[in-house]
Amino acid sequence: MAIKVKRESKFKWSINGKPVAGRGKKAVIEELRKMGVPEDKIKKFEKMKIEVGQEVDIEKL
């Protein structure tokens, strides 16, 4: 299953098109942990600089 994270605006993020409750990257990382994403992929995602409107496929990290 592909997991796509998109930055909608400065503080709004979505995972697979569903908005993430809470603000910022930390809320997204918490959701990814709940979904069972491996820790090494979360670390790579954490280091990335993601612009507004950009979409990241977690599977490809």
Give keywords:
four-stranded antiparallel β-sheet; 61 residues; 20% strand; single chain; alpha+beta
Could you characterize the architecture of this molecule?
This protein is α+β, with helices and mostly antiparallel strands. It has one domain. The protein contains 2 helices and 4 strands, in the order βββααβ.
Task: Give the number of DSSP strands.
Answer: 4
Q: Indicate the proportion of strand residues.
A: 15-25%
Oligomer description: single chain
The first-to-last residue Cα distance is: 14 Å
Give the strand line-up of the largest sheet: 3-2-1-4
Structural class: alpha+beta
Give the overall average pLDDT. 96
Topology:
Blueprint lengths: L3 E4 L5 E3 L2 E2 L4 H11 L4 H9 L7 E3 L4
Antiparallel strand pairs: 1-2, 1-4, 2-3
How is this structure best summarized?
The chain has 61 residues and is an alpha+beta fold. It has helices at 24-34, 39-47, and strands spanning 4-7, 13-15, 18-19, 55-57. It has one domain.
